[in-house]
Automatic annotation (TrEMBL):
Name of this protein: Neuroendocrine convertase 2
Keywords, in A-Z order: Cleavage on pair of basic residues, Disulfide bond, Glycoprotein, Hydrolase, Protease, Secreted, Serine protease, Signal, Zymogen
Domain of life of the source: Eukaryota
Enzyme class, spelled out: hydrolase
Function as written in the Swiss-Prot or TrEMBL entry: Serine endopeptidase which is involved in the processing of hormone and other protein precursors at sites comprised of pairs of basic amino acid residues. Responsible for the release of glucagon from proglucagon in pancreatic A cells.
Species assigned in the record: Oncorhynchus tshawytscha (Chinook salmon)
CDD domains reported in the protein's UniProt record: Peptidases_S8_Protein_convertases_Kexins_Furin-like
Keyword Glycoprotein: yes
P/Homo B domain residues: 389-525
One record GO biological process: peptide hormone processing
Amino acid sequence: KTHCPFTRSLMSTFHVEYCLFPQSNVLDQEGFGRQKRGYRSIDEIYIKMTDPLFSKQWYLINTGQADGTPGLDLNVAEAWGLGYTGRGITIAIMDDGIDYLHPDLASNYNAEASFDFSSNDPYPYPRYTNDWFNSHGTRCAGEVSAAANNNICGVGVAYNSKVAGIRMLDQPFMTDIIEASSISHMPQVIDIYSASWGPTDDGKTVDGPRELTLQAMADGVNKGRGGKGSIYVWASGDGGSYDDCNCDGYASSMWTISINSAINDGRTALYDESCSSTLASTFSNGRKRNPEAGVATTDLYGNCTLRHSGTSAAAPEAAGVFALALEANPNLTWRDMQHLSVLTSKRNQLHDEVHQWRRNGVGLEFNHLFGYGVLDAGSMVKMAKEWKTVPERFHCVAGSLQDVHKIQSGGKLILTISTDSCHGKDNFVRYLEHVQAVVTVNGSRRGDLNINMTSPMGTKSILLSCRPRDDDAKVGFDKWPFMTTHTWGEDPRGTWVLEVGFQGDEPQRGALKEWTLMLHGTQSAPYIDQIVRNYQSKLAMSKKEELEEELDEAVERSLKSLLSKN
């Protein structure tokens, strides 16, 4: 044919051309293959996986098993397909010990990096109890490093990584020196420390690391891994809606990566705590009574389980994903890992009835409960391969209010700090990472206190939500560093607003005695500039599409009106 006929839609500014080709050409065509890039079926990739629980590990590959939502998983398939399995990386499970004789863990057990601080010996084997109470660490270890293709239990997220056992939870009480010794154990051998514990999740405890442990964590991020920094992964807590993980000084530390959980259909687990310091999420057991909705992993004495649960299950999954990223790029620093978590985590199909997804001032999507979303192993290893170490980190005291301000029910105390974020000084912060509001406040009922903070770019962080079980009327919060990650990448210059009030039926009174604003971040971040450009472009395109839809609707209404008149 010498030309192609075309049709043009009456209702659109665009037209589509349909070309007809001679029949002889169609008959002579040779067939060849085409495949969607980045997509391969599960059977194609994992046909050789012989582990009996692998098909039940929905958090690795969610095909809808146990009433789950297909595709809602850690996307380890892509990372494994690229050849990353955690080889050369050691993850320490700080817990109640590890059954290192377990046939699914023995080949990946790192005896050199293991220790028992509860019994002060190099054999962190769990203490026997009739109810298997000390199975926690073994279950966490299997999520990270259970061997593949050995016909035993399931597969670890980083199934070629090494796992170390640090037994430190099983004694009548905890001490600062046991915690500090555990967190600082062999920091040149251990790459990642996974902790699925913290202060009591009773909705009324405010607690965190003591002096020696704080120093150990600071030394870890500054000196561990040859100066690249130890990576601390922390479970955000199981206190549910009665608690707030910003009252947990381990999970809310800048030096840790705080991980929350979602269940297999994308909802929040009923025991999940929410707070502004959570960076990302992984998975835990489902709400339904399906016996296969739990987390499948190794159990004590060579056994397997389908019932591991809680944010205890979430932190080791994250440690496994980070091990894959470290294998892709061993030069990643502790801060690089946090940046990669922010940039590659996905909203996917996570949703919560209370906390909606929002975007911060540079367009990064976050949720008060899920952080920046579920970790995506495939996206993380691909970005890690090309990642350049983030610039030097600076700290700026943006301002401090030391006067006593009364707080009463029925109203809000609103305070502001205006800052240039130390502009013109060596410690100028232009792009935010963490923000801390160091607050001293008390009230006639601490659990009814609510604290929000809004950045100059308009991002609101809930620093403290109500805790209905907290009846404290004496201690309050004494220089407590409430932390938010929600303003990541923002320009901190301008006016910050702090709102403090009481919620609840009973009248309360209190006083805020200090608010010090601490800014932590960098002076350059080229990827943030690109994110802003992309976000602005999407906003402009979205606005253009809205205008085009309005125009099309107006034209359609006009045509219908003309036709009805005729």
